[in-house]
Amino acid sequence: ETGVTQSPTHLIKTRGQQVTLRCSSQSGHNTVSWYQQALGQGPQFIFQYYREEENGRGNFPPRFSGLQFPNYSSELNVNALELDDSALYLCASSLGQNYTFGSGTRLTVV
Amino acid sequence: RKEVEQDPGPFNVPEGATVAFNCTYSNSASQSFFWYRQDCRKEPKLLMSVYSSGNEDGRFTAQLNRASQYISLLIRDSKLSDSATYLCVVNNWNTGNQFYFGTGTSLTVIP
User: Fold this and answer.
1) Which of A42, A56, A96 has its CB closest to that of B103?
2) Nearest CA to CA, how far is A102 from chain B (Å)?
3) Do the beta carbons of residue B26 and residue B69 sit within 8 Å?
4) CB A45 to CB B4 under 8 A?
5) Can you state the percent helix, strand and coil of chain B, rounding each to 5?
6) What is the pLDDT of residues A62-89, one digit of tens each?
7) Which residues is B35 bridged to in the sheet?
8) Counting beta carbons within 10 angstroms of the beta carbon of residue B5, is it exposed (0 to 12), middle (13 to 18) or buried (19 or more)?
9) Which of A6, A62, B5, B79 has the most CB atoms around its CB within 10 Å?
């Protein structure tokens, strides 16, 4: 059974650029959630995808968008990057309440 | 008001000590409760679920008080390997299967 994998592990972008982060869900999990964790904070919910549809969204602006594919993998896209977008981005796949986190993508915006 | 509030610490305790972490949540409709452990620069990992009856897993005991909307974690006989950040997590199925995390409580166990 494979776990949740995220890519890339680290990324440096310039303010104003766009970024795409990727997540492969754990086998059998049909739901993917994305979280942003700033330094010294707990993870904050960005949005969730279930069967390729957005199924809930946190308090993040529209420049944060996502996709889920038929194999349940997912992408997080962030446009017009700002310095405050620097954070650890965590993907979690789930089936019911069985929640598994990936190891995250550390994004630095300079 | 935040969904989940935790004392960020840090807690610095000697090996063998007993330490307790507390957490409060704002949504009385919350249904599921967890403690996660997060090591430095790693992803959160489930430590234990929390039930109204209280539950124990070795040196770890978790308790839930629904009336006070309060969750606790007790660690007995602390080990150096317990050093980490402990995140209180709350879930409400009625608003989608999203988790609400506290800011985390930092624990350092000192030799």
Assistant:
1) A42
2) 7
3) yes
4) no
5) 5, 55, 40
6) 999 999 999 999 999 999 999 999 999 9
7) B48, B88
8) middle
9) A6
